[in-house]
Design a protein that fits this description.
Blueprint lengths: L6 H8 L3 H5 L3 E9 L6 E6 L4 E5 L6 H13 L9 E5 L3 E6 L8 E7 L8 H6 L5 H12 L4 E5 L5 H9 L8 E5 L6 H4 L5 E5 L6 H8 L6 E4 L6 H10 L3 E7 L6 H9 L5 H11 L2 E11 L5 E16 L2 E9 L2 E2 L6 H9 L15 E2 L7 E2 L13
Parallel strand pairs: 7-11, 7-12, 8-9, 8-10, 10-11
Antiparallel strand pairs: 1-2, 1-6, 2-3, 4-5, 5-6, 12-13, 13-14, 14-15, 16-17
Helix pairs in contact: 8-9, 9-11, 10-11
């Protein structure tokens, strides 16, 4: 059982990194050039994806002491023969690389994943993340219980986007999340909803987790990231009528079927597998990021929805229908099969959304917008 740390003890545990760990607006903490703590500095990334350097005075031997604390907490060795040390809390993911393989010196990265949904309808529209029609369209896709893949390159905001749209799932429809690193925080964000959270580890991989999921009476499955052969079992899960969302790395929604085929490996019937993808994956969403500069010269990366497509198998043929491309919405390009699914869900206009229930802002300072959702605070235990 992982050792637990109280909030007042974390200042001693994290030392000079403590203010960065506790600052909710900071998402990434990276320590570079750690030559035994001399001339070390910290690179920080905030919630607006602005990255900047911060001077930080480390006490003598802090880097070594911090590494030992992490190693002791997770009972792992850390030396030349075991140069990678990883640890997690419910909100932090810590990775330390030994100086024998990190040329500039020991490297420490801390990725934070807080139980927030930073996206709100207001900031999505105001920042150009998406248009009102696109927002309504994707909310209606959830309402119609369509299977959605959120894709993009690293740091494009795939999981954050999926978290936002998963909040529109009705409270009584059981959601099961499957993750190796806890980022969804589905229960903390939606305590009123029926959900189960599964964590992948050395004894239960993604494939086993998906198989187990089917025994837990799911209505929705949220797979944090599709990376390998588990895609086969994910499609089998969708073929039973279970709905879901997942993320994967791709730079174009049209490449998603090929990416999934490559993940499945050569031991599968490619034709049948491809047909299953077009049958059971309904919507592809591409998240992108663009480097921009503010009026005062500050650099930041603006995230936005770049592409949306529908996958369809109709009359023995597979099709990718582009709904959004390069910011241009094609409202006339919707297939009849898609419109019928929308109609069954009570949606007459896919680009206009009608609420199913009361929509309330909860703690606007934390940018949380959920149906009754709350932010319950953080736990910083490593384990």
């Amino acid at each position: 059982m992982a050792e637990k740390f109280k909030i007042e003890e974390t200042r001693q545990y994290f030392g000079p990194l403590y203010p960065f760990v506790m600052e909710d607006d900071i998402t990434d903490i990276d320590i570079c050039d750690c030559r035994n703590g001399e001339d070390a500095f910290v690179w920080l990334t905030n919630s607006e994806n602005v990255r900047y350097k911060k001077e930080c005075a480390f006490p003598d031997n802090f880097i070594e002491q911090f590494t030992k604390r992490v190693a002791n907490t997770v009972s792992r060795s850390f030396h030349k023969q075991s140069p990678i040390l990883e640890a997690e809390t419910e909100t932090l993911r810590i990775t330390i690389v030994h100086e024998s393989v990190s040329v500039l010196g020991r490297s420490i990265s801390i990725r934070k994943s807080l139980p927030y949904i930073r996206l709100t309808e207001e900031n999505m529209l105001e920042s150009g993340y998406c248009s009102k029609e696109v927002l309504a369209f994707l909310k209606n896709c959830v309402k119609a219980r369509l299977n959605i893949v959120f894709c993009g390159e690293p740091a494009a905001g795939k999981t954050e986007c999926a978290k936002f749209f998963s909040s529109f799932i009705p409270d009584n429809e059981r959601v099961i999340t499957i993750e190796d690193t806890l980022e969804w925080h589905y229960y903390e964000l939606n305590p009123q909803k029926d959900c189960v959270e599964l964590k992948v580890n050395s004894t239960m991989d993604y494939t086993k987790a998906i198989k187990t999921c089917l025994r837990l009476n799911p209505r929705w499955i949220m797979l944090s990231e599709t990376r390998s052969k588990e895609v086969v079992y994910l499609l089998e899960c969708f073929s039973t009528g279970v709905r879901g969302m997942t993320t994967l790395h791709s730079d174009d929604v049209r490449n998603v079927p090929d990416r999934m085929l490559n993940m499945a490996g050569g031991d599968r019937d490619i034709t049948n597998m491809e047909n299953d993808i077009y049958n059971f994956i309904n919507v592809g969403v591409l998240l992108n990021r663009k480097e921009e500069t503010t009026a005062d010269g500050k650099h930041f990366a603006r995230r936005f929805i770049d592409q949306i497509c529908l996958y369809e198998r109709n009359r023995g043929e597979n099709h990718v229908i582009m709904v959004l491309e390069n910011g241009q919405l094609n409202e006339k390009n919707l297939p009849q099969t898609f419109l019928e699914k929308m109609k069954k869900a009570g949606v007459l206009d896919p680009f206009s959304y009608e609420e199913l229930g009361v929509w309330a802002k909860v703690d606007s300072d934390a940018s949380i917008m959920l149906k009754g959702g709350t932010y319950r605070g953080r736990k910083t235990a490593i384990g």
